[in-house]
User: Fold this.
Amino acid sequence: MPEELTEAASLDGATAWQRFRSITLPLLTSAIGTVSILTFIGSMEALALPYAMGGSSGSPAGATDVLSLMFYRTAFESGASNAIGVSSALATMLFVFIFGVALVFTSIIRRRERKLS
Assistant:
């Protein structure tokens, strides 16, 4: 954060809230957006921790069940002959969903950055 900007705002009589809202937050928008997108992607692809905690069944009572565990159960525990194909289709749909949401968030963030500059 450039100190000159906050110092100039202070000299102009801006309060702490005005400095945060008009200077700090707009400068942090791109970082907040990037972290939000990466966190969303990471949370949708969680497998290791829920699998270690509850196994592939999402125990206890489905409390640790996530989409990745559903793919695993569909592919390896359903006993159907086409289970890997169905699991791959589910994973592909998850990818398309995550990609779409990431594109929408990215376009919103870029639009806000262009508006501020």
